[in-house]
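A quick aside before the break. I want you to see a complete sequence-to-structure record at least once, exactly as it would be stored in a machine-readable document. Don't worry about memorizing anything.
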Amino acid sequence: MANPWAGEVALVVNGVPMVAKLTLGALAELEAGLGAGTLVELVERFESRRFSTRDVVAVLVAGLCGGGWVGTADDLARADFGGGPMEAVRVAAELLARAFAIPESGA
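That is the input. The structure line, written in tokens, reads:
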């Protein structure tokens, strides 16, 4: 079960429930994997709905690796996502939002 307060997002990959999280290390790998630009630019692309499939895959790989998954972008490209491609996009956007948002106080 994903803990949103820890920045986690749930995703079902090939029928297996997984937890994704953009840790600092995962963010660094994501930034390096993009080759150009910054993470802020990536967030802006998602906010303005100008992201690419490559962006979605890169965010999901980083998030799943941050959650303990051992795999590659090639593995993910062949995967089946519970909820389909739109759910994969939603999870990628949610990962970015949770990684850069300050949790609201529950008080």
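Two observations worth writing down. The longest helix spans residues 84-100. The longest strand covers residues 8-13. We'll return to this after the break.
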